[in-house]
Amino acid sequence: LVENLRLRFALAQSEEQLQKLITGLLLPLLDKLDIASATVRSKIIALLGQINKKLKGNPGVKIPIDSLLEGSFGKEATGFSQGFRLMYISMAVESAEDQQLATAIPHLLDGIQSRPSSQQTTLTTSLLMAIWRGPKLSETQVREFDFVSKIHRAVVLVALARDIFLYRASEPKPDSSQVPVSAGLSLERQALLTNNGKARWTSDNQVLQQLKERLVHIIGSGVAFPIEMPAHIHEQRLLALLCASCDPYFQQVADGGKDAIKRMCRVDYESVSFVNHLFEMFLGGTYTGDSAGSRSPVSAAVRLKLLGYLNRSELATTSYQRWIRVITESLFGTGTTVKLRQQGVAFLLWTINRAPSDQVSQASPLLLQLIQKTLFQSTATSTTTSLGEDVLRGSAYVAYGTLAKRVPTLALDNLEHLRLLFDAFTSETASVRLSVQEGLLAMLPAYESNSITHDVRDQMSEFLQSQLDSSVYQARYCALRYVISAFPFADMNARWLCILGLGDAKPEIQQLAKSGLAIRSTLMLERSGDLPSLQDAILFIRDKASKVIDGSQPLISENRSKLSIANFSVYGSTLGFCRSLLLATGVAAIKQKRGELAVDPADLEFVNEHLALSTELQRNSMQE
Questions:
Q1: What is the C-alpha to C-alpha distance for residues 493 and 55, in angstroms, rounded to an integer?
Q2: Which helix (H) or strand (E) holds 94?
Q3: Is residue 581 pLDDT above 70, yes or no?
Q4: Alpha carbon of residue 22 to chain centroid
Q5: Which of 114, 149, 217, 517 has the most crowded Cβ, counting Cβ within 10 A?
Q6: What is the pLDDT of residues 287-305, one digit of tens each?
Q7: Mean pLDDT of the chain
Q8: What SS3 class is residue 292?
Q9: Which residues pair with 295 in a beta bridge?
Q10: Tell me: the pLDDT tens digits for 454-502?
């Protein structure tokens, strides 16, 4: 029988005759291979060699791809004919018509999912070839992939698409014959995607671009992947399209990825699987459920996008070992960029605010070191600062203050951190100073506690007084905020600094100083002991004022109004403060005697009427 078939193939002269023989006899011959004796099998193999020569000489002859695919994946994966079947599938894809290619895609996906690893490369190449050679699929065609009931097809295709989007065709380095592995891939995975460097898309950028565009069209299709599909499929689609959107060479691929992401259903940023994949892609290593070996981290552009999602996930802040590595890699990893460093600081700030307290405390020394290194390294490496560097440094100052707020013990032992931020007002650009101010105000609660030692508090009072003479408005504002919040109301030195603030040239600081002299209702009731005595207040103010008058302690600097101790606003507020102390003490005594537990708003307004007194004195002086 085999000899007769050899004769028939030998006598076939036209493509029509050969096509008829191939269509009717190729599959039965392949089926016979698995059951024939060794002698017959060798004859069949010889006949297949003869057929291959005929096919090469007659390129118009088509291998019956539909029946070949349907008959191949129902057979035993280890059958003797499998190697020949895979060979003919590859040949069939090269010459198949558009509709045949569209029909072949789901069969090839089934084959990749079910075949052993030794057959994966050939099937993967055939699948990608079918997608590249085929047309841009219609909604009807992609619906026939039936991803809803055959989830394994979606899993295989999305994973392949993600890795193709990560793949960058490149030449071997001059000192090496090995092609560099693209970021986000492993050596084994790249070999699979490129058929060990023999696939067309490894040497032809036009082929690679069209392949990527076809994959973006399929992965971004809401028809192929309807919303009712499992959430983990949509998570993987998002990650794949995110990789496509970062393509540095093919703008159409990048634009297609961005557009498809906009049309996708929303992904749960608190999903365990999604967050795990974000970390895995960012850090590299072995992916969950992946047999492709250890992968390198993705490119800086993709990392930047991944951080955008990590910055919105509270679940991401619960994995200390991973988020600390992400922050470190973002700020100082190989190939990092200014934008990636900015996002790294943003993620650092997100974790400080959202991570469990025990994790933040544990990581605080390292986090502080990273923040300081970011600030000092930026200063040391640039004589002029760009907008990107300013944003980076500003975010680092905010993170500095927020970390001290979450871990107050960092700030309580000494004033090192406080001095560093106040010093930044004079060394940083105007655009960064607002962030320095935000960082200082974030740090303020750390100094409001009663855990500060008297020595540190005394040093702090002296330091803040020096800052009230700063030429930078934000430094004076923050110093006064610390004076008001970090010291008890009974601290007359703090009240004196508020009195000095009344002479500031900035109305905002004048108003803040007045609020620091206003007596709150709580001070007249359960915390009435926080009120300074009137006698002590008068003696203290007289002593300070006399030093101002004799010149041993100046009241006026270039940042305060050019007025003397006779500044009617300052003088009136000082008198009003003493008057308020007198009234507050009296009101507190009356309330205590009557057993009343609340202060009426009218009582509070009555006590703090000294603001009206200072305003009236200033108005009269202007009329004179």
A1: 99
A2: helix 82-95
A3: yes
A4: 56
A5: 517
A6: 877 777 889 999 999 999 9
A7: 85
A8: coil
A9: 285
A10: 888 888 999 999 999 899 999 999 999 999 988 888 888 898 899 888 8
Burial-class residue 257 by CB neighbours within 10 Å (0-12, 13-18, 19+).
buried
What string of DSSP letters covers 101-133? Answer: HHHHHHHHHHHHHHS-GGGHHHHHHHHHHHHHH
Residue type, 515: S
- Please say whether the beta carbons of 490 and 450 come within 8 A: no
Q: Pinpoint the alpha helices (H) of 336-415.
A: 338-354, 357-381, 387-406, 409-412
> Measuring CA to CA, which residue among 313, 399, 306, 396 is closest to residue 355?
313
Write the CA distances from 188 to 144, 195, 286, 296, 304, integer angstroms. 31, 10, 12, 12, 26
Alpha carbons 415 and 412: distance in angstroms, whole number: 7
Q: CA end-to-end span of the chain, whole Å?
A: 129
**pLDDT digits over 316-325, tens only?**
999 999 999 9
Distance CA 227, CA 561 (A): 66
Per residue in 3-17, pLDDT (tens digit) is: 787 888 887 878 888
Tell me the mean pLDDT in the region 353-370: 94
Q: Which residues of 434-456 are buried (b: 16+ CB within 10 A; e: fewer)?
A: ebbbbbbbbbbbbbeeeebeeeb
Written as six digits, the tokens of 391 are: 């944003």
Tokens of 270: 């608190």
